[in-house]
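Homework help board

Subject: predicted structure for assignment chain

Our instructor gave us this sequence and asked us to write out the predicted structure in token form, then describe one feature. I got the tokens but I'm not sure how to describe them. Can anyone check?
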Amino acid sequence: MAVVYVSPTGRDLDEGTAQFPFRTVTRALQRARPGGVVQLAPGAYQAGERFPLVVPAGVTIAGTTRQAVVITGGGPADNATNDNAITDNVTVVLGDRAQLREVTITNPQGSGILANEGVALVVNNRLLNCQQHGLVATQKACPFISKNEFIGNGGSGLTMRAQAKGEIRQNIFERTGEGIVIGDQAAPLVIDNQLTGNRYAIVTANFARPVLRKNQAIASQEVALWVKDRAEPDIGHPQDLGENQFEGKTDDIRNDAAAPLATAGNQLNPIRVQGLVTYLASQIPAEVAVPAVLLGNVEPTPLPLPLPSPDPDPLAGLSLDSRFNDLVGHWSAPFVEALAEKALVKGFIDGTFRPDSQVTRAQFAALVAASFPTVEAIRPPIRFRDVATSFWAAPAIRQAQVQGFIAGFPDGMFRPDAPMTRVQAIVALVNGLALGSGRSESLLVYRDRAQIPSYAIEPVAAATQRELIVSYPNPYQLRPLDPITRAETAALVHQALVAAGTTPRLASPFISQAAAAAANFTDLSARHWAKSFIDPLVQKGWLSGFRDGSFQPDAPMTRAQFAALIVGAFDPAPVRPAISFRDVPESFWGALVIQRAYRANFMSGFPDLTFDPNYPLTKLQALLALVSGLNLKSADLLRARSRSLQVYTDRADIPTYAIDAVVCATQLGLVFNHPVLSELRPSRAASRAEVSAMVYQALVLADKMPAIASPDQVILS
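My token output:
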């Protein structure tokens, strides 16, 4: 990657190097090539510049801090690339994949930035006191605009027109005429922005279709959200809440469009709403609201179709007798019988239990209230509009609610007859019993972990570690969104009683275990070079195998899997603020561990704000992560450099920037090379076995594991 340097004290006749920088950004852009960087030294850039500054495709302009580097000025915008002549004077024009970082831009006669093609990246800049707009995106541009400040711009902070899309995330808009304007057919994602003290915070017009989530549009001088023409902004649905805050002196929302505007999960004052607005109730229960279970005193429901007979092998040796005629031989018989002995569950008048019938929220409340009567109340009672005092489960619902097991919905309803999901039942018991949160890497045992809602990740992890979860026929299939059955609920409540210490433990092959993969792996013989390193990590629940019983030691480890491993092994403290990666949504199974690994300085993302969670981790990346995250130091780096590198026949493949880290890792015994001790192969994907050995040795250095001798460990004599 070529870097061209610019400084206010440089000369355009010089070479553009760090020692002899150019004077103007204009000259540097003439020299820059795709993939290159124009590095600006602190100072003001105005005199001698030819505006607009056109940043070619793939070129990055980077300052040091946004306050230290200031570009002031503007020039005629080319109307051929400026749809509808939104601005006639601009400071910077960004090409496809061009980037602008850590710069302040001011245009006293026009707009700051114009993005009219491709995917431009605008991050950590300040658009200050531009006469027209801070940034304009038009045509089919799809920019990523994040963590910028738009302050005091005359027209708007940011305007998107034509068919522009992209993402507007975590920006600040203050004291502008209009904070964000979205018109024509533009359809960006606008998320987690702060808009304060603007005349109009967000304006949508024409046929715009933006999606607005988690924005704070407050202290608006007139209107927080103004919808005009045929625009249809998405500000939330019952299953996908908007979570925006709209606050305007005149109107929180003004809908001048003909179609009604639907709103769900937003903070606003209905008194300050003008036009047709439809208020939709959330269909997402509170985090502790969960499915229901069974109790004997319920009206019978039709029997479901019989399920196929389970494989007899997992049930061999288990006592499957039951007092219920349809539960003899059923996998759940031991759990149901244990609860029946305590009079916590009953069957139906025909002698059946109906294990595969779904349960309701009221039934779940009844079972929880009966099973955990001594749990103290932690919240005041709520009177639900749809639970009459004469309702059979009203006392149980009240008890379970004040104990923290269950909750109602934002509309004041409880929906006692609604079926619930497995994940809701799990979260309810974890919260009600105050089991805390678990390590998200525990969820690696579940093949369908991607289906776990983000709010439930830590509770499900805690339930897994405490062995609350029972999944038939496969303990590694959580099926979190499936309705919970009477049998599954009985098993779950039984395991919760075990965790509470009030019921003896039962043996069952269907209890999910965080370290269930710690059994003998089919492809990991006793003579495997890394087995002694792998086994302790598996037994701790930091590593797991695969559903087929294998460990696949030679398979590559992904970056997300590595993040889960180091977070579990080291439980690191944060040393830097969080960052949003474009390719790691909140619903991704490893989102939490990736964020923790980043904040602890073990891992970082890439310049385009991606993390590549499913990309194989290289051996060099693993070593760099351990040295950086654990803040490891070499005793005598200068003397050790040549001596350490001499042991590797492929030392020429080590990048210059990584030499010191490799030297440190070598000195501390973190490097394992198999099968050839002298070959580091730094750029090759690291195998699961190699990573296990390196992480284990790092735990040895931290006095968390005993040392293990290995012929594959590089040790300096």
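Reply (TA_rk): Your tokens look well-formed. For the description, you could write something like this. Residues 285-313, 515-519 have pLDDT under 50 and may be disordered. That's the kind of observation they're looking for.
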